[in-house]
# Entry
Amino acid sequence: MSTILVSALLGAFIITVALSPFLIRNMRRLQFGQQIREDGPAQHSVKAGTPTMGGLVFIPAAILISIILLGFSPALYAVLLVTLGCGLIGFLDDFGKISRGRSLGLKARSKLGAEVVLTALLILALSRFGLYSTDILVPFVNFKIDLGFFHPLFIFLVISGTSNSVNLTDGLDGLAAGTAVAGLAAFTAIAWQAGLPEIAVFCAALAGACLGFLVYNRYPARLFMGDAGSLALGGAFAATAVATGTELILILVGGVFVLEALSVIIQVAGFKLTGRRVLLMSPLHHHFELKGWSEWKVVLVFWGAAVIFALLGVLAYGR
# Structure
């Protein structure tokens, strides 16, 4: 177990570290730089123009290493389908932002429509290979619930919610990538215990690729992952959870992502109901920035929380 997982992690790490400078140079040559949201923290304005779309390096690196080590399998096919599909949505979103010179890309309804299609394709792929189940595991109690006809809707919510939550977390240098490493380590263990070694290897490879990406994405970042990376990561988490029947455990493993998404929901709902903002700014990481925390301190604290959530997720599955 340990040898192949370490090989996957190191292989993807090396490829990502080696190829990222090439992407950075070409993003600069093409003037494909990050568009900063106008209502974000003022200190982020200096990040405008930083090369983006880092997902174009670390996602393929993880996929390549996974296929080299274990070949192409039905379970891996299903997970990659959603990962690449969400990555494509993110790429189109990034390209739209860059070409229009603004921080908004694809319209929300276009993203939701694409996520509906990905949900259907995932169900078809899992069903074709005899891997589809409408059961979901309840954390800590070793008990399963059959969602029956409601399961497809549930899968859609998992894919849409997870991909967008990771995307919301990608607001500080290294935050989303480092948080993802902790979650992917947890799902490496879960997938292996579930008897899906190909998915475990992919999670390990993706964790290694994220670590390689952090070489260039840590503060001060020289490369951003863009929606092509964050949405793909969210898709990978969602598809892995569906394939292993651990959608509820994903809430624990991705606890930081969940809190980031909830902070936005609470902020919007609170403002509409009371006319006042609950937080200084959402997502949650910006709130702490405006409270005077340095960007690096926020990232380190969130990484620590991600490790704790990941451990809780593994414990929840192991009981």
Notes: The mean pLDDT is 91. The chain has twelve helices and two strands. Strands lie at 135-138, 143-146.
